[in-house]
Write the structure tokens for this entry.
Amino acid sequence: MALISLASAKGSPGVTTAALAFALTWSRPVVLAECDPAGGDIASGYLRHLDLDGGHGLMQLVVAELRGQAGEQFWSQLVDLDPPMARRLLLPGIATPAQAASLAPNWHGLAGFFASLERGVGFDVIADCGRLVAPHAPWPLLSRADLALLVVRPTLTSLRPAQAAVQNLLAGAGPASDGRIGLLVVGDGDYDDHVVARHLGVPVIAHLPDEARSAQVLARGGTVRTRWPLLRAAATAEQHLMGAIARRRGQVRHPGSQGAEHVDV
């Protein structure tokens, strides 16, 4: 199993929408962790019909981690996105950006905990890391991830700030950066995936459509139809994401192998 982190350089290219679409179509057991320092949106959006009281989630897990009890408390902090299966779970994020400062010293510990789930319970973790320009951004979750995806739109407005973000991600990943950093392109624009990948210097791993009907349901709640274009594309993208991780792990085991190449979707 794997830790997959999603973030954006600037603006709102659809990180949360993409992360939630992945979680709702993922074929393997998965936890969607809302780690956006600007605050989580899913409890008040897609899950607003549940009227969650904020009594569980990321902040409570941080407290448990400080006490060395994260493993014991983790499952009680989750919300089932697809009840009663308990295979697609949400770790709700913070309620307000004011709480982000108290999270900052704990990102390293949380990154290690999320990565450790692979060895124990067999869940993938998809971390919604929000915008990297936000104060107290969760960089350790990106540097520790098996795959860190920068979400971009194929427009000049989106790609310009993405250049610096990619360089920061590559620097943070250190010697193990090869194959760890990739792009998730959302919607149509001025450039195709080949141009986007060449411009930013890292591969496009997947491409999701900018589909208003699905995005509206994921943002405000309602019945998700897996046949809708966004959900279909998210389900297909899982193969590309896990394939990129498998290739990278193979390269780590065999350092002499070639780097990851561009993935067409």
Q: What stands out?
A: The CA atoms of residues 141 and 183 lie 16 Å apart. Strands lie at 3-8, 30-34, 79-80, 88-91, 124-131, 147-152, 181-186, 204-208. Confidence is low (pLDDT under 50) at residues 254-265. The first helix runs from residue 15 to 25.
